[in-house]
């Protein structure tokens, strides 16, 4: 194939990732995360096989774009499904395991590339495991929260009937996170029961009145008949009103479902979108800036690829840190350390010129950046309400993919990474660490279903500049507001306290 055409393969792949972030979240919100995930893994397997069978330049670039779209959809849906099928205290582990599997794949790529002699053999070696694992993906269940929101309780009942363990876990999951949605469903089913009760009472009253007509005198019978007709009319009107109630509830639910744009215009949602989008952009510039230029540190490219994957393996320990210190402190610390180590690698390359030291510092910064990406993905799932969660995660992923494309298009030339690029890789995450101050802490808090739940999440109140100069403002330092949860404000509402799970 033409080398000049093949030089655009990385840019085309990043463009596919961008397209996947544009449509992957919206499609999963509409058709379900499981359906989009299954389509994504099938498309990814096909795009891995065809380039080895049909080595044509234009076809290869087209398949690279489709591979990027499918990879982005797989990442969005797999992370969301893993988090939504976990209890609050275990919610930090699925992203860690998925990130660790990504690290294993990067390490396995180095010996595969070393043992294969052509790129077609490498494609076949990468495609065979994907094809063999396709039947396993059909056992993945759909998101329980999405099923409740879409009123697909039949599927949930099927999950509950699989085994006693599944029934116990699903009941525990819904009792802790989906109680409100279950109550809405029960309220919708209530009018039918009430209508049936009214009709039964009406039949009993009619039979009782007929028996009374046979025993009482004629004048009294006429009065009873008149009373019966009046009661019959009132009960019929009441039953009709009760019968129309589910339709009205359905219309109200549909109006609520299609009011996503109103949620997106909320200042709370917009602020979180802007901050996470910037963090995603800065993370992509730093992470892929190091990954795509790992061979420019003066070390063997296969060893550099292996150590690049190995440097991300400690991310498996991140959940232990998150369980102790929470999401926001770890996200801030990882962003700050990532930028700092990138700047240190810049200084080492200028004054010491030891390739191993420069690569080690850069890979430590890459580890910190991978940690921040892992935390920000979990953060994005926990910060946005259920109805628009995938759309918001998709927009954040969009900015992340824009950073990937910028790295692919504006790739540094030469054998070393230039000074301006390393300054950009180091300063962007440090600014993102400061922006994390405006995000709430979501550790141990149930996933929000509405804007009200988002507003109840504990946030950090920063004093304004004029108040800092006053004597009272000097004493008011930034403090976390006490978390306001539904179990604290509404005594009649079922408890969602995460401590009840222990």
UniProtKB/TrEMBL annotation:
It is found in: Membrane. SUPFAM superfamilies: MFS general substrate transporter. The keyword Hydrolase does not apply. It is a multi-pass membrane protein. Pfam families: MFS_1. The chain crosses the membrane at residues 12-28, 35-54, 60-83, 95-116, 122-140, 269-290, 302-323, 330-352, 358-380, 392-410, 416-439. Keywords: Membrane, Transmembrane, Transmembrane helix. Residues 187-252, 465-502 are annotated as: Disordered. Residues 1-444 form the Major facilitator superfamily (MFS) profile domain. Residues 187-229, 241-252, 485-495 have a biased composition (Basic and acidic residues). One of its GO terms (cellular component) is membrane. InterPro entries: MFS, MFS_dom, MFS_trans_sf. The keyword Magnesium does not apply. PANTHER family: SOLUTE CARRIER FAMILY 22 MEMBER. This is Solute carrier family 22 member 13-like isoform X3. It comes from Salmo salar. The gene is LOC106611409.
């Amino acid at each position: 194939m033409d080398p000049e055409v093949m030089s655009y393969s990385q840019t085309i792949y990043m463009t596919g990732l961008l397209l996947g972030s544009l449509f992957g979240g919206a499609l999963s919100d509409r058709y379900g995360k499981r359906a989009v995930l299954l389509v994504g893994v099938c498309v990814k397997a096909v795009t891995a096989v065809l380039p080895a069978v049909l080595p044509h330049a234009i076809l290869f670039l087209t398949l690279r774009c489709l591979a990027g779209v499918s990879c982005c959809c797989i990442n969005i849906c797999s992370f969301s499904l893993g988090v939504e099928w976990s209890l609050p205290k275990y919610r930090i582990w699925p992203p860690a395991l998925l990130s660790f599997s990504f690290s294993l794949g990067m390490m396995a790529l180095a010996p595969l590339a070393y043992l294969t002699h052509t790129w077609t053999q490498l494609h076949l070696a990468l495609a065979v495991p994907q094809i063999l694992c396709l039947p396993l993906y059909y056992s993945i269940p759909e998101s329980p929260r999405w099923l409740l929101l879409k009123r697909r309780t039949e599927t949930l009942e099927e999950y509950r009937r699989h085994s006693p363990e599944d029934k116990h876990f699903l009941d525990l999951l819904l009792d802790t996170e989906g109680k409100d949605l279950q109550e809405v469903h029960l309220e919708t089913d209530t009018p039918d029961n009430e209508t049936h009760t009214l009709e039964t009472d009406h039949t009993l009253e009619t039979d009782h009145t007929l028996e009374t007509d046979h025993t009482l005198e004629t004048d009294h019978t006429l009065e009873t008949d008149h009373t019966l007709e009046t009661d019959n009319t009132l009960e019929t009107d009441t039953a009709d009103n009760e019968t129309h109630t589910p339709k009205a509830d359905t219309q109200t639910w549909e109006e609520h479902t299609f009011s996503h744009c109103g949620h997106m215009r909320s200042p709370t949602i917009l602020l979180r979108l802007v901050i996470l989008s910037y963090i995603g952009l800065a993370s992509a510039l730093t992470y892929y800036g190091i990954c795509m230029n790992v061979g420019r540190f003066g070390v063997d490219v296969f060893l550099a690829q292996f150590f690049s994957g190995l440097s991300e393996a400690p991310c498996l320990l991140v959940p232990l840190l998150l369980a102790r210190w929470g999401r926001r402190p770890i996200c801030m610390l990882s962003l700050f350390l990532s930028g700092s180590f990138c700047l240190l690698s810049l200084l080492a390359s200028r004054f010491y010129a030891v390739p191993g030291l420069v690569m080690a510092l850069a890979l430590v910064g890459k580890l910190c950046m991978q940690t921040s990406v892992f935390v920000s993905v979990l953060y994005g799932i926990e910060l946005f309400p259920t109805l628009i969660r995938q759309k918001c995660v998709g927009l954040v992923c969009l900015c992340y993919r824009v950073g990937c494309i910028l790295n692919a298009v504006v790739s540094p030339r030469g054998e070393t990474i230039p000074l301006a690029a390393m300054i950009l890789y180091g300063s962007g995450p440090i600014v993102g660490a400061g922006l994390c101050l405006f995000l709430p802490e979501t550790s141990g808090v149930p996933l929000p279903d509405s804007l009200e739940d988002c507003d109840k999440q504990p946030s950090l109140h920063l004093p304004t500049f004029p108040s800092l100069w006053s004597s009272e403002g000097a004493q008011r330092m930034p403090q976390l507001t006490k978390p306001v949860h539904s179990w604290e404000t509404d005594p009649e509402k079922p408890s969602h306290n995460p401590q009840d799970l222990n």
